[in-house]
Structure formats: C-alpha cells, structure tokens
Design brief:
It is globular and about 35 Å long. The chain contains 2 helices and 10 strands, in the order βαβαββββββββ. The strands form 2 sheets. A 5-stranded mixed sheet has the order 3-2-1-9-10, with no helix packed on it. By secondary structure, the chain is mainly beta.
C-alpha cells in the first residue's frame, strides 16, 4: 500500500473565533472542511485566505443561506457525508459521516459507517478540550484521524 495521503484539516463550531495558530494547523493540508457554526462569514473568508480549498456546511447558528446543509464528497474511493447536526442514522451509501454540533470529539463505527467529530474550537462540552482534527486518506482509501487539542 502506498501512503501518500490527502490531508484535510477538519474543524467545527468556531462560533466567530479562529483556532489559535490556524495557519500552523493548516500547514501542508490539501483541503479544509468546516462542519458548521462558523457564525461570522468574515471568519470563513479568513480561513479561505490560508489557501487550500474550503468545504463548508451550514450549522444551526449560521445565517448564511448559501451554505449547504450537507455535502457529499468522494475522496480516494471513500464516500463522505458532511453535516452539522448528526442524524439518528447515517444516510445510505456513505462510508464516513463527519459532524459537529455536539462540541464533543467522536470516532466510532456504527453499522459499518465511521462517525467522526473534530470537537469544538470554542465552548467545548462535557469536559472535552477545545480541538480540531486532521484527516488523512491514503490513495487506497485507508483513513487516519488525529485530534489536536487547542489549549
């Protein structure tokens, strides 16, 4: 297996605040995925200025109606579903579901679907530290998920 991964910075629930050292966190990534509750569109503009393409879904605190409620993406053979509020059941034909909203990091498999949450940049919940995550996807579809504590 070749491991030349696609690297993605995944963040959620920024609530008007960029993570500390955002440029450093985004160093070497190919994409940035934001799972909602940006709140201020200007923050998304600052994230976009870092350089890598940004994919975003609208959170329950976002007023920007042009942002989609969910996104289905395919990367290196895997099907990803990005959404802010986690559904009770993953949609069909999805390998990985990424969500925010709970402010709690998550990495579990349910009914063959991997469920991932990078945690929250601001106001973490239930004792979880503020965090973001890096997702790496090999060219053969192997995943690596790593949380990064922010404080």
């Amino acid at each position: 297996m070749s491991w030349q991964p696609l690297r993605i910075l995944v963040l959620a629930d920024t609530h008007n605040h960029a993570p500390p050292k955002l440029n450093e966190l985004a160093g070497g990534v190919d994409e940035i995925w934001h799972l909602g509750d940006v709140c201020a569109p200007q923050l998304l503009d600052a994230i976009r200025q870092i350089g890598p393409p940004v994919s975003i879904v609208r959170g329950n605190c976002d007023a920007e109606r042009s942002w989609p409620m969910h996104l289905d993406l395919k990367r290196n053979g895997l099907r990803f579903h990005l959404v802010h509020i986690p559904p009770k059941e993953p949609p069909p034909n999805v390998d990985v579901l990424l969500h925010g909203h709970t402010h709690v990091p998550r990495d579990e498999v349910r009914d063959g679907v991997r469920l991932l949450n990078p945690g929250c940049v601001t106001r973490p919940n239930r004792g979880a530290p503020a965090s973001v995550a890096h997702l790496e996807i090999s060219d053969s579809g192997e995943l690596r998920w790593q949380l990064t504590r922010l404080r």
